[in-house]
């Protein structure tokens, strides 16, 4: 009887397992990847990079809707190109890096949108505030790597970035563009 039950279970697994399609985890190449924020200060564009971040991308080119992406950004790695400015933006009025050391993104849906393009939806958390976001990305091959590029527009005040006197958007604009390029291979 046990042998019949074992054979039935193995037969069932043999039918079910091939039907389960899992997206493959990509190994992200930090040297070919980047995350930055572009904003205007006194109407002059400024781009600052996040030097430390991690990304986990499970990608299935044949079924992009089965794909998932998670990203964590080390807030203390924000680099404006000047050590004094870097320390200033980590303070409570800006990123409050002591209390909120990471920003994160987790996809909730990825949908194809034409050749080499996808629409991504997910949850973005910065400074303890979480918002639903939607943005397009481009996907392309670069040698053995798959590259995901995009830009996510946000409003900094929606995440309490710039409190007190810094809520005034005449000095630092409310609009921020988070640009990313993530390269990974299997």
Automatic annotation (TrEMBL):
Database matches in InterPro entries: Lipid/polyisoprenoid-bd_YceI (IPR007372), TTHA0802/YceI-like_sf (IPR036761)
SMART domains reported for this sequence: YceI (SM00867)
Domain named Lipid/polyisoprenoid-binding YceI-like: residues: 25-185
Domain of life: Bacteria
UniProt signal peptide: none
Chain segments annotated as transmembrane: none
SUPFAM superfamilies: YceI-like
Protein name: YceI family protein
């Amino acid at each position: 009887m046990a042998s019949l039950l074992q054979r039935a279970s193995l037969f069932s697994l043999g039918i079910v397992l091939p039907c389960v399609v899992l997206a493959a985890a990509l190994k992200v190449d930090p040297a070919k990847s980047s995350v930055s924020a572009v904003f205007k200060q006194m109407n002059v564009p400024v781009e600052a990079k996040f030097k430390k971040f991690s990304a986990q991308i499970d990608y299935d080119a044949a079924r992009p809707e089965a794909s998932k992406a998670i990203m964590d950004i080390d807030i203390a790695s924000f680099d404006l190109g000047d050590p004094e400015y870097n320390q200033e933006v980590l303070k409570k009025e800006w990123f409050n890096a002591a209390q909120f050391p990471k920003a994160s993104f987790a996809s909730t849906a990825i949908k194809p949108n034409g050749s080499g393009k996808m629409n991504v939806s997910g949850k973005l958390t910065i400074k303890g505030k979480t918002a639903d976001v939607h943005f397009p990305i481009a996907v392309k091959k670069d040698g053995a790597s798959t590259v995901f590029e995009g830009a996510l527009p946000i409003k900094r005040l929606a995440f309490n970035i710039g409190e007190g006197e810094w809520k005034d958007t005449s000095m630092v604009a409310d609009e921020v563009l988070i640009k990313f390029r993530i390269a990974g291979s299997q």
